[in-house]
Every structure is written in C-alpha cells, then in structure tokens.
Amino acid sequence: MTLVQTRGAPLPVRRSVPGRIRVISGITVASLALLFAALAVGSSSARDGLRIIGRDAGPQVVATAGLYLALSDMDAQVANALVMGDQYAQQRGAALAQYEARRSAANQALLKAFELSGDNPAERRTVESVLDGLGRYERLAGQALLLNERAKHAPGPPPQEVVQTYRAATDLMRLVLLPQAYNLTLESGTIVRRTYDEKALMVPLLRIAVLLAGLLALGCLIWLQVFLAHRFRRVFGPALMTATIATAVALVFGANVLSQDEQALRTAKSAGFDSVLTLAKTRAISNSMQGDQSRYLLDKERADTYEHTYLDKSLSVLYFEAGNLDTYHAEVAKGSDNFLGMLGPEIVGKAGSDVVEAYRAFQLADTKFRELALSGRTNEAVAERLGSVTTAFDAYDEALVVLADTHEAVFTSAINRGEGALNNLWRLLPFAIGVIGLLVIAGVWPRLKEYR
Questions:
Q1: Cα-based distances in Å from 416 to 30, 50, 119
Q2: What is the residue-wise DSSP string for 315-338?
Q3: Is residue 205 in a domain?
Q4: Which of 113, 156, 287, 364 supports an S-S bond with 73, CB 3.0-4.6 Å?
Q5: pTM of the shown model
Q6: pLDDT in tens, 114-162
Q7: Structural domain boundaries enclosing 123
Q8: Count of domains in the chain?
Q9: Residue 9 belongs to a domain
C-alpha cells in the first residue's frame, strides 16, 4: 500500500507541469497580443490625425483661404480698372486679365471646397451660396465695366451710374461673399483644431499604453524562461531569448514611432499649418487693402469709409497704437521690435524681416498716394496708385509668398515624416508578430513534448 502511494504521489505533480507551462505561455501570448494591439491602435490614431490635418481638412482650409484671396482680388481689380478711365490701356488690360485669373482660381477653390466638404450639409450649402453669389457679382461687375467703357472718363472717379453699379457689386462681395468664404475657412479650421487637440491627448496616452504593455510582455517572457530553466534544470533557451530581444526591439521601435508622430503632428499644426493659414489670410486682407486704395479714389462719397476700412485692415495685419491713418503711417515708418497683429508671430528670421520691410515700403507709398489725392491732384494720385504703390505692394506680396512657402515646406515635411515612420512600422509589425510567435512556440513546444 505504501509503495503504491509513493509511486502515485508524483503523478499529479508531473501532470501539473505542462498545465503550468500552457498557462504561463497563454499569459505571455496574451501580453504580446496586448502590446501589438496597443501599437496598432496608437499608430492608427496617429495616422488618422496626420491624414485629417495633412490630406483632408488641412488642405481644405488652405483652399478656402485661397478662395478669400481670389474673391477679394477680383473686386480690387475691378476697382483698379474703373479708376483708370480712358487712359492706362496696358495697365487696364493687365487688371482685367488678373480679374479673369482670380475668377478662375475662385471657381477652382470652390470646387475643391465642395469636394472636400464630403457629407457635411452645412459646408455644401455655404459653397453653393458662394457660387450663386459669385454669379451675381460677376454680372454686376461686368455691367460696371461696360458702363465705364462707354463713359470714356478721365482717370479718377467715373460717372455716378458706374459708381452706383460698382457699389452694388462691392457691397455684395464685402458683406456677403467674403464673410461666407471666411466661414468656410473657420469651419474647416475647427476640424483641424479639434483633430489636433484630440490626437495631442490620445497619442501620448497610447504611447504610454504601448510601453506598459511592452514591459508586461517582457516580464511574462522572462517569467516563462525562468520557469522552464528552473523546472527542467537547463539554461535559458535561445528561441525564447531571441523572442525577448525581438519584443524589446518592437517595443522601442513602436514607442519611438509614436513619439515621432506626436512631434510630427505638433510641428505640422503649430509651425506649419497655423502659419500657412495666417499668412494666407494676411495676403487676402492685404489684397483687399490695395482695393480700398482704388475705391478711395473711385467713390468720393465713401472715401472716408474706405480710408477707415484700410486702416482697420492695416491694424489687423500689423498692429500699432494709432487712432487714424496718419498716426499709423508714422508708427510703421518709426519701426518696432514688438510686433502685434496677424504678422506678429510670423516675424521670425530673414524671411520675416523681409516681409516687415516690404510692408513698411508699401505703407510709405500709401502715404504719398493719399497726399496727392487730398491735394486734388487726382491724375497724379492715379498714376502713383498704379505705379509706386503697385510696385511696393507686389514686393510685399511676394515676401509674404516666400514666407508662406517656408512654413508650407515645414508642414509638408512633418506630415511626410510622420506618415513615413508609420509606414515603416506597419511593414515591420506583421513580420515581428509572426517571428515572435514562432519563437515562443519553438521555445515551449519541445518542453511540452517531453511529457507525451
């Protein structure tokens, strides 16, 4: 009886060993699955953020900002053509050609905005409303240009019939179309900001989840190896050792990719997208400012209004404490190191300094232009507007474009860098899952076979 108990006692113990191996192996596999699931969710979240900011809503915002620029410049070019009268044939032809180019750009931007609006009914209605309003504006602008051509007036204010028709057109543009275009930009910009805020919170949390899951998986692999080495009186198996190293590499690589994507999102939003959008708005407002210069000459009854409008827009572009345009001109000429307004945060480096200098030259040209207009030298004021003022504005606008291009390059580079890192992760992730899984099986299966 004693002999039977002695022989039978170890049997439950021997039977429990493969069971414990299976349990520990199962926990290890589950922890590895948790690691790879965290990597998949984290990378998917980061990719979604990069796609929305870099490929969908972000480009839509830039497209709608381009729409605002095209619309404002259309109205400015009409005003330019009307104020030229029966002279400046070459400049009038250039203004009309620019008007047609901007009209085409506006139509293209609207089509792009409609495509990117997706299933958003509010955005689609806004785009359709702008399209309808643009058709009405083109008819009014065409009538004003035709009446102006028939009047054959000297440079300066055209006949009242032309002025009245143009007033209807510019009021439609300034009070209806431009606010709607700006609303499109705001709606798309809200999507970008909301996406960024969400991903800026989620991606770091998911990276922490990856680190915790990875440490758990490494702990389980080490636990499994220690158990097998202790139970079978052997050194650590090469298969499980390799699986542990591979898991550590996957953990470090995956966490690093999520860290890169977090940085890419931050750079694309803060140093790229925000600046590109701000400079696009600045260009649009600045184009409208030069239109106000022509409207100042064009409509005597609204001259004071257009002067105040010009000042308001100037203050929004580059702010100085000034209650009137003369004071503002003096402050701009004096210069400052404390820049406020839309351009304030963008005045960095040589490109930023070039923009400030070009803006200062443009405002100086505006000063001379208004002095001529106030002294009643209308023909000379028109010549100054079409000559020195236009030259100064073109240089300023070109400086804005150069500065915007530098930020757009930062934006594109950050998006491409983030997506490239994710692509590398997704190419390696299936391979890592397969290799680590096979290594775990190769490390455990021989031990289980010993109990068969």
A1: 34, 9, 27
A2: HHHSB---SSHHHHHHHHHH--SS
A3: yes
A4: 287
A5: 0.81
A6: 776 767 787 788 888 999 999 999 999 999 999 999 988 888 899 999 9
A7: 16-449
A8: 1
A9: no
